[in-house]
Amino acid sequence: MQHLSIFPILIPLLFGAIMLLPPISRDINSQRIASVVGTLFLLISSAVLLYTVNSEGVQLYALGGWQAPFGIALVADKVSSLMVLLTAFLAFAVMLYAVAGQDKGGAYFHPLFMFQIMGINGAFLTGDIFNLFVFFEVLLIASYALLIHAGGKQKTQATMHYVILNLVGSSLFLFGLGILYGTLGTLNMADMAIKVGQLEGETATLAKTGALLLLVVFGLKAAMLPMHFWLPKTYASATAPVAALFAIMTKVGVYSIFRVYTVLFGEHAGELANIATPWLWPLALLTITIGAIGVFASPSIKTLSANLVIVSSGSLLACAAINSEEATSAALYYMVHSTLASAALFLIADIMARQRGKAEDRFVRSRPFVQPKLLGFAFAISALALVGMPPLSGFVGKIMILQATQSSTQTMWVWPLILLGSLAALITFSRAGTTLFWRHNGTAAAEAEPAKKLEIAGVALLLLASPVLVIFGGDMTTFTQQAASYLHDIHASAYQLLPGAAQ
Amino acid sequence: MEGLYAFCVGLLTACGIFLALRGRSFSVVIGLTLLSYAVNLFLFASGRLKLNAAAVLGESEQYSDPLPQALVLTAIVIGFAMTAFAVILAMRARADLGNDHVDGTLPVSPADTAQQSGGNRKCNT
């Protein structure tokens, strides 16, 4: 279908807009139905898009019929369609969880959720770097409002930091874009990839400044060290479905780093080849280290999962620093795994917190759970996946990253850090599990609410993804390898993405 | 002209960053606004500064690049929305947290023993 590539943006936009209109906007039940139906449609259309891209190749969609590089193009290749499908699946599972009652804390949860998905999908699909900025802003403004959903002092405080940081980030993004447009004269990513190689002398230095400014912005989104301080507090204070959806937000930053520094400033960029690599190496390794220390020091499950997000960001950035096809392929696999697994942990943490009274999700002696078997099972699966123990997907993902290191120096740095990070996670999870499930006093709280069926369904969907990723591991890695080789060899196909350009 | 323009952008950016680093949410919001003004001017200049060059065909002998102007329009709209949101959030934070510090708590310096109560601090002398 010709218009397939724009559906992942249009569906959430339409559903979000409809939910703001009178008949539905007053009734939370019809909003819930609309949201679930909307995310289901999104899931179906993204799956069809992935299937089409896999069988027919890259789908180029010229918005308004203006051909690239003059118009804005949406490029659905294997990488972006995989990320869109991941977003859709995450959104569907999280929405199932949210409609069970977490969406009542404030107004407009459902439209904002939809607009955020629209922004995320747009950022994945767009082939124009200014359009990437616009979609970043769409997803950001929705996330600002979602973050403060259900209110409270902690949320206001965290949102304040998050908003100010991201506003500064947006300004830097525009500065970077201005410099790149001034030197390259184009904003289409495929066109930029071709023109970057021709820069030399002063212009190249100027373009380098712009490109590294963009690295700061994407690093802020991806929680790269020194720009990671906002993340633990923000994610830990957000409402559970919001935090779970935010699990994909750092991945948007990592994805942009892959897009910009593998495709635009990759090996073919002449004087500017691989400019980000010397910065990415130390920062990625430090991010893993700080994340692992944070994991050790976490006093509650929500903080623990937020710190695990930092560790996974660090691992993905290390893949970007290795800058080879194997590493990119490993990163794509690990991205899918870590998004779903950490989202599941955020949701489980919320169910646990509601059953423990005042102790919430902190690691202290407290009342026993109302549903210890169910929660224990879910907690164990998500812990196994996040630590990276066989037989779940974390193990495969980490093995792929470890195998992707090329030289002995790389191995010497990456292996110990990733393995020690896993060890830190293992220790913290064992400590947490022991305290939460075995050390309690009194009886289950009378006011504790057991998890509802829809909530269990949402968590189960996310957890089920982990074994599925292992069972279909062969197909999955073949796909990520093809996607990675496409990303690294974009020069061969760049002109196909520019039907309007004279060759 | 270029020198003056560059100086203005630089000054706006410097003031914006200085204010954004302050502790009170009001000055931070003003700082972010200044920063977005600087960005808009900067984006405009990325299409090169030209005199007597309209972005419309047939109006002048040479043309200026219309794309940066479109980008600036987009950036202005987005920046405006974001500033509005930041202002509302700052007011909400002032109401929720009881003060207008960006961290939500007023920092206590060891030398300062005076009571901290917003703007109505009484003189103890």
TrEMBL record, chain A:
Keyword Cell membrane: yes or no? yes
Q: Which residues cross the membrane?
A: 6-24, 33-53, 79-100, 107-126, 132-150, 162-184, 204-223, 235-258, 278-297, 304-324, 330-353, 374-393, 413-433, 454-472
Q: Where is the NADH:quinone oxidoreductase/Mrp antiporter transmembrane domain?
A: 128-427
- The species this protein belongs to is Marinomonas pontica
Protein name per the record? Monovalent cation/H+ antiporter subunit D
Q: Do the record's keywords include Chaperone?
A: no
Family of the protein in this entry = Belongs to the CPA3 antiporters (TC 2.A.63) subunit D family.
User: What superkingdom does the record give?
Assistant: Bacteria
Q: In this record, what's one Pfam family? A: Proton_antipo_M
Identify its membrane topology class. Multi-pass membrane protein
Places the protein is found? Cell membrane; Membrane
Keywords from UniProt, A to Z, are: Cell membrane, Membrane, Transmembrane, Transmembrane helix
InterPro entries associated with the record = CPA3_Na-H_Antiporter_D, NADH_UbQ_OxRdtase, ND/Mrp_TM
Please name the taxonomic classification of the source: Bacteria, Pseudomonadati, Pseudomonadota, Gammaproteobacteria, Oceanospirillales
